[in-house]
Amino acid sequence: MIPDGITVIGDHAFDAVLLGKRGAGQPDSVYIPDSVRVIEKMAFFGLIYRHGDGTVTGLKSVRLSSNLESIGELAFADCDVMTDVTFDEIPEGIITI
């Protein structure tokens, strides 16, 4: 989903509302490559879908790089089914959130 070499995931980059992709085809997991240093505000906003039968699907897990330096405001807001956020290694420095 995110190619290696990308250093910044920009504002609203995968915002489901802006992309018009609320529903089928949304990822249930995201791997943030080691090259990414910054995830800007609302980058993954709204990756959730409430089906007519009452079930809910969406982004469940995110793997973050220990190279990450900053996570913007509401970067993963409205990802209500997310249950797993992990780092590949414990970051050596402080991450700005």
Mean of residue pLDDT values: 84
Helix content: under 10%
Specify the number of helices.
1
Element order: H for helix, E for strand? EHEEEEEEE
Q: Pick out the low-confidence regions.
A: none
User: Care to count the β-strands?
Assistant: 8
Strand order of the largest sheet: 1-3-7
SS class: mainly beta
Separation, N- and C-terminal Cα atoms = 23 Å
Write a brief caption for the model:
This protein is mainly beta. The protein is 4% helix and 24% strand.
Helix and strand arrangement:
Elements: E1 8-9, H1 16-19, E2 29-31, E3 38-39, E4 48-50, E5 56-58, E6 61-64, E7 70-71, E8 84-87
Parallel strand pairs: 1-3, 2-6, 3-7, 6-8
Antiparallel strand pairs: 4-5
Describe the structure in your own words.
The protein is mainly β and 97 residues long. It has one helix and eight strands; from the N terminus they run E-H-E-E-E-E-E-E-E. The chain has one helix at 16-19; strands at residues 8-9, 29-31, 38-39, 48-50, 56-58, 61-64, 70-71, 84-87. A three-stranded parallel β-sheet has the order 1-3-7, with no helix packed on it. Strands 2-6-8 form a three-stranded parallel β-sheet, with no helix packed on it. Strand 4 (48-50) and strand 5 (56-58) form a beta hairpin. The longest helix has 4 residues, at 16-19. The model has no long low-confidence stretch (mean pLDDT 84).
